[in-house]
From TrEMBL:
<protein>
    <submittedName>
        <fullName>TonB-dependent receptor</fullName>
    </submittedName>
</protein>
<feature type="domain" description="HMA">
    <location>
        <begin position="24"/>
        <end position="89"/>
    </location>
</feature>
<keyword id="KW-0732">Signal</keyword>
<dbReference type="InterPro" id="IPR036163">
    <property type="entry name" value="HMA_dom_sf"/>
</dbReference>
<keyword id="KW-0472">Membrane</keyword>
<dbReference type="InterPro" id="IPR036942">
    <property type="entry name" value="Beta-barrel_TonB_sf"/>
</dbReference>
<dbReference type="Pfam" id="PF00593">
    <property type="entry name" value="TonB_dep_Rec_b-barrel"/>
</dbReference>
<dbReference type="InterPro" id="IPR000531">
    <property type="entry name" value="Beta-barrel_TonB"/>
</dbReference>
<keyword id="KW-0675">Receptor</keyword>
<feature type="signal peptide">
    <location>
        <begin position="1"/>
        <end position="21"/>
    </location>
</feature>
<dbReference type="InterPro" id="IPR006121">
    <property type="entry name" value="HMA_dom"/>
</dbReference>
<dbReference type="Pfam" id="PF00403">
    <property type="entry name" value="HMA"/>
</dbReference>
<keyword id="KW-0998">Cell outer membrane</keyword>
Amino acid sequence: MKILLKSLLIFSLLFTNFLFAQTITKATFKVKGECGMCKDRIETTAKKTGATSANWNAESQQLTVEYDAAKVNPEELLKKIAEAGHDNEKFKAPDSVYENLPGCCHYEREPSFLTVTTAESTKPVKSDNQFFVRGNCVSCKTRIEKAAKTAGADAADWNPETQTVTLDFNPAKTSADAILKMIADVGHDNEKYTASDSVYKNLPDCCLYDRTLPLGVKSDLVHMEESPAPKKDFTQHADHVDKSIEEVKLIKMGEATALSKKETGLTFNISSKELLKAACCNLSESFETNATVDVAFSNAVTGTKQLKMLGLDQKYTSLTKELLPSIRGLASPYGMNLIPGRWIGGIQLTKGGSTVTNGYESITGQINTELLKFQDKPETAVNFFGDINGRFESNITSTSKISDKWNQSVLLHGNATLAKMDTNDDGFLDQPTGNQINAAYLLDYNDLEKSGLGSHFGISFVKDERFGGQTDFDKNTDRSQQSFYGVGIDISKFDIWNKTGYVFKGKPYQSIGWMNQYTYHQQDSFFGQRNYLGNQKTFYSNLIFESIFGNTNHKYKTGASFLYDDFDENYLTQNFKRTETVPGLFFEYTLTGLKYTLVAGARTDFHNLAETQFTPRLNFKYDISPKTILRLSAGKGFRTANIFAENQQYFASNRQIEILGNGGNIYDLKPEIAWNYGASLQQEFKLFNRKATLVADFFRTDFQDQVLADLDISPNKIVFYNLDGNSYANSFQTQLDFVPAKNLELRLAYKYYDVQADYLGGKREIPFMAKNRGFFNASYATDKNDKGSFWSFDTTLQLVGKQKLPNLNANPAEFRLPEYSASFATLNAQVSRNFNKNIRVYLGGENLTGYTQDQPIIDSKNPFGNYFDGGMVYAPIMPANVYLGLDVSF
């Protein structure tokens, strides 16, 4: 019995010691960072150093960790985080490491809450048989250890975390010098020898360690082929599988608008933070604070805004949603108004030709909209908006997690324009009245880390009705029973889509993705006595396979796509039907070097009406230095014009449509074909001792064929015909983003356009395009208090130079326009108050300069006469507008 009691006592003591030894400590440390990439880097480093859990918060700049105090030294953990590039309350990151972080990760280092201890002064301590050797990944480890054994070592163990190799060798047979020289010969710098440049450059992409870091400091790089399959998101696109999560986090937590340093093309990531700087009730209003895109002013007839990029209409820009074709065909004039601003999680804007994997229609660039999805925690948000012009909106968005692998988004929107505004007393509404109901549901499945499978499903529906025209027009009375001029637009649109992808086991660089989408678009409209009815059914499918040749220096994507468009249009008494079927094949190769990336792609599309089209595209990026990037691009695109849908702003006029056909299969016209060439230089530097970015770019678009809409032949006609001669658009832009003081962000830009075409009457400038435009945006936010409360202020000034106007000289003098419009300026501003993380109120103003166009409607008193024209809009119609909004999340 005594023996048993003694045994129990000993067991109890041992068990108690075991429990105390396993006690988990929870602690919080201050760590500096900026974006989602920082979050990943900080948390990953903490876990690799021994933390059982780690969560870094960008707003509080705090890292919360749990660790076994018996095994983990918190100072060692913070030291490792500093070595990875992040200042904290114990250690400061080496300047060289900080400077080599991606641009989005450059946090403000001053004022600092840090001690003077630096990570550089606390390099890993090594024993006599350990030596510093640079490297990155498992391939490096294998190469280093093999080289050491080849040089005579009995054993060798290289540690990527400490950047040291531990050697066991017989001094009578070899030496440390001989072993380290052999390691350098195979490509790895060490404390004794430096590898030759030629050998280093020929290492696989995953092994290209950072040679500028101090010895013993780990290079913070991600290498797909060596690490476990990363968490990926096929909601982005199969061809973005290896970086989609990173981009989404960047948009969510990083800068308001970030110019990507990684992308080969000139790509801007626009976050929800940027969208909150303005009213942003829909996608067309999401670019008011962006200098790259020009937003045309609302047309009094349709009430819509159109975008222009590189000096050309938005029809030449590929507009996608979830990287699926979205705003095209009959949806072109109104599609931007059908995507609510509060639904947008982020926007990727690329200038110039985009990747061939996304299709053939991109000529001037691509704008992709990502819808809200579940991030770190469930969130439901409610938004209310109203302005003094009688426009009211409400939004409800909810993202939630269903299970470990499933999450969902429910998106609801409603708006109504109730007031009949006629501020210029011309008898016509300044904006249509009407309402819109919009709903979407997104469902995501993510099991990429285990089974390698991910899938995204979406469905959306929108119903939009607008009525404009004379203020006395009664929409409830038949047009034949009244003498007033009216405009009615009734749109129904339905989308359903799915994207599914698979990442191959043990090959995270290899994946296959398949996306499908069906779209139904119906428009019933009238403009005075003219009817326009349009119906479009579209099916789109795209299959993409991605892998490598040898290593990740040589990547490729290949696949096949299919596009089916069925159009049925009725204009007046004429019916226009056509069906387009376009199977296509594509291949894209990416070559990555030490300082450059080359993306070369081509696709062949077998269009049943536009014949076989070959579309090559080339993008090249060269990092002159970590802060200086040169980009070059060239590519071809083609599209089929939808002349009725794309020119509805001219339907409210006396102009008759005339088509001068040339035997083509679409409205008796040939497809539009153009080449786009571009060059840009991106430079980061310090201004006022803070980060600044200067970008200068030039793009030229040359049309091989184009469908011209000629407004100059006669004020009574709009004539469509194919280009016979030259048509080009030159675009130059320079933009400076800088932070002159804490929390104050400034953006300055200047744009010059030269856009001309050979019309039937000779070479002329394209109308409604200002040659010179200036842009200024300023944003300021106060510091957050303990409750998360702060103020935000934003203002945007746009200077619009004179524009070439259509020739109306055949009209009587009072119904003519000058050859050029006057220059003018518009000013938008907004102030918002975040009371805490959940409640925000904002107050803003648009067109605060009050500038409005004189006589926006020609001969408005006689809308059924010969001279009536409501399409000559080149400046604001609405005077200064004030709006108020409320955001609540929970």
